[in-house]
Amino acid sequence: MVEISDLGIRYARAVAVHRIIVPLGVELGPEGSLLRVEGDEAHHAVRVKRLEVGDAVELLDGRGGRARALIKSIAKHGKHGWSVELAIAKIAREDRARVMVEVYAAAAKGERLEEMVDALSQLGADLFHPLLTERSIVDPREGKLERLRRTALESMKQCGRAWPLEIGEPVKLAEVMSRASSPRVLLCAADATGGEIPKIGDSIERVLLLVGPEGGWSPAELNLFGSSSAALVRCAGNTLRVETAAVAVTTLVVDRLAAGRRR
Amino acid sequence: MVEISDLGIRYARAVAVHRIIVPLGVELGPEGSLLRVEGDEAHHAVRVKRLEVGDAVELLDGRGGRARALIKSIAKHGKHGWSVELAIAKIAREDRARVMVEVYAAAAKGERLEEMVDALSQLGADLFHPLLTERSIVDPREGKLERLRRTALESMKQCGRAWPLEIGEPVKLAEVMSRASSPRVLLCAADATGGEIPKIGDSIERVLLLVGPEGGWSPAELNLFGSSSAALVRCAGNTLRVETAAVAVTTLVVDRLAAGRRR
After folding, report:
1. How confident is the model at residue A263 (pLDDT cuts 50, 70, 90)?
2. CATH topology for B4-93?
3. Does the CB of A182 have a partner CB in chain B at under 8 Å?
4. Mean pLDDT of B15-41
5. Domain regions of chain A by residue span
6. What is the pLDDT of residue A27?
7. What is this structure's pTM?
8. Phi and psi torsions of B202, nearest 5°
9. A216-253 pLDDT, tens per residue?
10. How far apart are CA A35 and CA A18, in angstroms?
11. What long-range pairs does A170-173 form, CB within 8 A, spacing at least 24?
12. What whole-number distance in Å separates Cα of residue B159 and Cα of residue B153?
């Protein structure tokens, strides 16, 4: 059995405490109360992770709620169903990020898109939209978007964020830019000819990262950036795949924001 | 037909000029000379990319040599073989990076390792070694290392670097650290409790990035860092997969080095 007092160290050291996502609308708490989890999450905890009565878990509600809990009882329902009863020990609430990091990237083909969403989620991006550009090849359909939302929830469970990476609808470049013309928005477009990520001023509430397709931005799109407040930012010297470029610019912005918070 | 004079723009804009890797030991040049390419690279150019006489390509020799060339003739040999004759138009040589970026990361399972090597290559890392730590699960065998070397060459072709990412043998953490105790080496270990990437002084010749397994560093390993000059560096607030952590710290270091070069 893991003592609750060990958990602080276990979190910091990234040794996996098993996490359970509670269904939408279920309230975490109050502390000391019991919560019953069934379905896939219960099955995963009991049959895949082989957790037992007394084991500690972390509960996430996907809306900033995070609770430490102990497994109080495990019961079997019918042929495949499991039910796990949890004693809630400690609840914390996290606000959304003060500066939202939004990634608008041309969709890569096949599984690369899911892998990119997983990585963006781990790195702490807040929102992802597939970006439709002149040279985009892929325009993901609803079924694919649904898979990306599942990937984002799975990733939340794995990496321990309190809010999932939100997956938005495919959106055209011109529309993103027209919706984002505010002094509180910092607009960055990844491009081999660009420079460093600009300073993120205190008034900024959203950083929008635009990542084009592997065919590059069209001349018209580059003109659109030139006639707006968009900053062209470089991520590395070589020709990058979309997903590597998206991950690289997100890393740089998240690092910049973290460095700003510590000062 | 693409004029050679267009190539500058095409490179900068990342629109793919097809690249051909010449076999080990083949000299590029002199300018004006002809070079014959056969085997897989010829097959790929003719049958997959459907290039034709007059098309421009870029040749890479994997040792810093880069040439622009035009396809002069295409011939068929036997049942499946192709031969492409190239007229070399312009040769450039690139030195290795002044500061070598070396990534020592615990090997991820399955295809994730190949994908990580591909991303590290695109981002400009110079060397990758699988890192053996107390909690490492995977110790890649020779067959896997051979696949990683092929991945690195494929990636060189795709992203246009002049030297491939080098793939080294699996190595133990203590050995890396004992080999790297020099004032010309900056040693950084990724850890959730770490800080920013330290300033990379002018005397630094190698930056070694250490990335532990998903189980985290052991207490003994953390002590080893504490009693050495290693800096603990953070890459994001969440629990990262090995490959995301490796890509993130590489991105931050490469960006830092690029920013230093522009000053």
Report:
1. low
2. Ribosomal Protein L25; Chain P (2.40.240)
3. no
4. 88
5. 4-93, 100-262
6. 86
7. 0.89
8. -65, -25
9. 999 999 999 999 989 999 887 778 999 999 999 999 99
10. 16
11. A170/A107, A170/A129, A170/A130, A170/A131, A170/A132, A170/A139, A170/A140, A171/A104, A171/A129, A171/A130, A171/A131, A171/A132, A172/A131, A172/A132, A172/A133, A173/A104, A173/A131, A173/A132, A173/A133, A173/A210, A173/A221, A173/A224
12. 10
Residue B223 sits at φ, ψ, to 5 deg, of: -65, -40
Residues in chain A within 8 Å Cβ distance of B12: 192-193
User: Among B126, B156, B161, B239, which would you mutate to test the A interface (most chain A Cβ atoms within 10 Å of its Cβ)?
Assistant: B239
Residue B10 confidence (pLDDT) above 60: no
Judge whether residue A79 has pLDDT over 90.
no
Does residue A259 or residue B205 have the better pLDDT?
A: B205
Provide mean pLDDT across the span A39-46. Answer: 92
Distance (Å, rounded) from C-alpha B102 to C-alpha B127? 5
| Contact in structure between A11 and A48 (CB atoms under 8 Å) | no
Q: By 3-state DSSP, what share of chain B in percent is helix, strand and coil, each rounded to 5?
A: 35, 30, 40
Phi, psi of B63, rounded to the nearest 5 degrees: -135, 35
Residue with tokens 């060189």: B156
- Token reading at B144: 């896997």
- Do A87 and A70 form a contact (C-beta atoms < 8 A)? yes
pLDDT tens string A108-124? 888 899 999 999 999 99
For residue B7, pLDDT over 60 is answered with no
Nearest to B102 by CA among B227, B208, B239, B202: B208
Instruction: Calculate how close chain A gets to B218, using CA atoms only, in Å.
Output: 9
Interface test mutation site (partner B, options A6, A9, A10, A13, max chain B beta carbons within 10 A): A13
B245: which 2 tokens?
């952590």
Rounded CA-CA distance A128/A88 in Å is: 32
Taking an 8 Å cut-off on Cβ atoms, the answer to whether A241 and B122 are in contact is yes
CA–CA gap between residue B206 and residue B29 (Å, rounded): 32
Pick the CATH number of A100-262 from 3.30.280.10, 3.40.50.1980, 3.40.50.1820, 3.40.1280.10: 3.40.1280.10
Q: What is the mean pLDDT of residues A139-148?
A: 94
Contact between A152 and A167 under an 8 Å Cβ cutoff? The reply is yes
Sign, Cα dihedral of B178, B180, B184, B187: negative
Q: Which residues pair with B73 in a beta bridge?
A: B85
- The mean pLDDT of B25-49, rounded to a whole number, is 91
Looking at this predicted complex, what is its ipTM?
0.87
Report the pLDDT averaged over residues B42-47. 92
CA distance A129 to B188: 34
pLDDT at B174 over 80: yes
Q: Using only C-alpha atoms, what is the Rg of chain A?
A: 21
CB contact under 8 A, B15 and A215: yes
Q: Is the pLDDT of residue A106 over 80?
A: yes
pLDDT at A16: 66
Within 8 A by CB and 6+ apart from B146, the residues are none
Nearest-CA distance A20 → chain B (Å): 15
